[in-house]
Amino acid sequence: MIKKAFIVLFACFISTNLFADFKEGKKLFDQKCAQCHKGYISFKKLKENFYERNNTLLNLKTPTENMLAWAIMDSSRKIGDPNDEDMRTVEIEMYLKSYLANPDLNNSICDKSALKYYNKKEPIQISDEEAELLAQYFMGYKKDRLKNMPKPKKTLTKNIKEDRVLKKAQSEGKHIIVYATSKTCYFCKKMEKEVLSLDEIKNKMDEDYIFLKIDVDYESLPFNLKKHFKGMTPTFFVLTSAGELLNIYPGAWVKNDYLQILKENL
Hints:
About 50% of the residues lie in helices and about 10% in strands. It has helices spanning about 1-15, 20-30, 45-50, 65-75, 85-100, 110-115, 130-150, 160-170, 185-195, 200-210, 255-265; strands spanning about 175-180, 210-215, 235-240, 245-250.
């Protein structure tokens, strides 16, 4: 009898769960959570904020909505089994109710490197229905995000014709530098302002190199460099006039170090 009653109760719970709506969950989040948790911020900018600028760029006191969704659904400390959606919903509901009732940062599933910047959260009691709606919201967040904001398709920029670049490099006796950058990269902007914009640097590059700037968020790296790219911006690839890779320099460089890079590859 006990086993049968449990099955009936569990079936009723799952049946009720089917009525939970992602849109209603979003509405609840906007009403009760958005006043503390900011909306979507790209992970590229979040990484820059926390790992490169010690939270001085965004000054976040709580995780953003996409950080919460990622922590719950995709992080190494994610909640539940991705292969069992029904049970996972139950586990997320239980986690939300438990953590919000006793919000201890030491028990948080959020990125530990960001926790030190967050304010201590006051306990909040939420109902079973609210926990269910929020669970549905977080479970559907990624799919909804991708549907409404598809990732840009990367293409090789029309301004770069590899054969023409190689022909120019060979005729002028120059090497090639491919500069992998991003508009959201703080250290790229810093290096462009403090190093790459200097006349001494520009003259040296013009003398010995063909310089190609590639925004990796929207453009594919030429000369099959994608297989060597580790995702760090800035990264400088130095190639021969025949397009053969000589060296890779990830990270930003000060003037004298960058001049040394230009010299040691000749």
